[in-house]
Amino acid sequence: MTPRDRSDSDTPKPDGLRLRARLRFLYHGASQTAVRFRYSVLVIDLLIVAFFIAAPLLKEGGLVFYVVDYIIAALLALDLAARAYCHSDLKDWLRKPIVWVDLFILATLLFPAWLFNLGFLRVIRLWTLVNSDFFWRTVGRRYDDTRVEDQVKALTALVTFIFVATGFVYTSFVGTESISGYVDALYFTVTSLTTTGYGDVLLPGTWGRIISIVIMLTGVTLFVRLGQTLLRPHKVRYPCDRCGLQVHDPDAVHCKACGNLLCIPDDGRS
């Protein structure tokens, strides 16, 4: 058989195509190897988020802090580069707001001396992670009901807001009479968004009052959203093949939008 007679499948792929195929397999595949890889990435991501939360307390570590900061920057850069390379359309990938948030977080890691005052926004990485397809293809692949996903996303939004607000309060008001450290900023944020308002820790000036109002209103909104997701009736994902409605009651026989007959599998859930 001459080289011309060979099929495309017999022709060796260039190294770049092999690498892209391997990355797509790991990031998007359904095999146990791909799932274990994604679990490892998620564990590393959560450890990175924990570092972001503790960064104001760890910054006094000096050189060690900056070494860890750049190691995390390298890991995040490799992850973003791998996701971009295995994506079929780079322009489409760059249109995603979550990608730009991650790129901004990477910039704060690469230039910590200049952008450390914006470092509190790094915690948004937790929100982008939980709201990504990558997360739900891995952790959430066993769930077909929307309630679990909505509850996790609502709780994540609340936790992210708490630490972003805490970081902003700490960065903006540390050294004042009320905010002497990160714990004071966290205490003020929690008491404000729960509208407890003990009054022992207050932000000075007009801007301090405005920030307090924003924290209270946003906190109440996020608490209400979390409560709604906890009390919302159970739903399952089962697209209607006629109208495309994605979610239905688990015992639904007909689509409530178009009346089409459904056949939702019963896996023994109550």
From TrEMBL:
Entry keywords, A to Z: Ion channel, Ion transport, Membrane, Transmembrane, Transmembrane helix, Transport
Gene Ontology cellular-component terms listed: membrane
InterPro entries with a match to the protein in the record: K_chnl_dom (IPR013099), K_chnl_volt-dep_EAG/ELK/ERG (IPR003938)
Chain segments annotated as transmembrane: 39-58, 64-86, 98-116, 152-173, 207-227
One MF term in the entry's GO annotations: voltage-gated potassium channel activity
Domain Potassium channel, residue spans: 159-225
Transmembrane recorded as keyword: yes
Classification via Pfam families: Ion_trans_2 (PF07885)
Keyword hit for Membrane: yes
Protein name according to UniProt: Voltage-gated potassium channel
Origin species: Brevundimonas variabilis
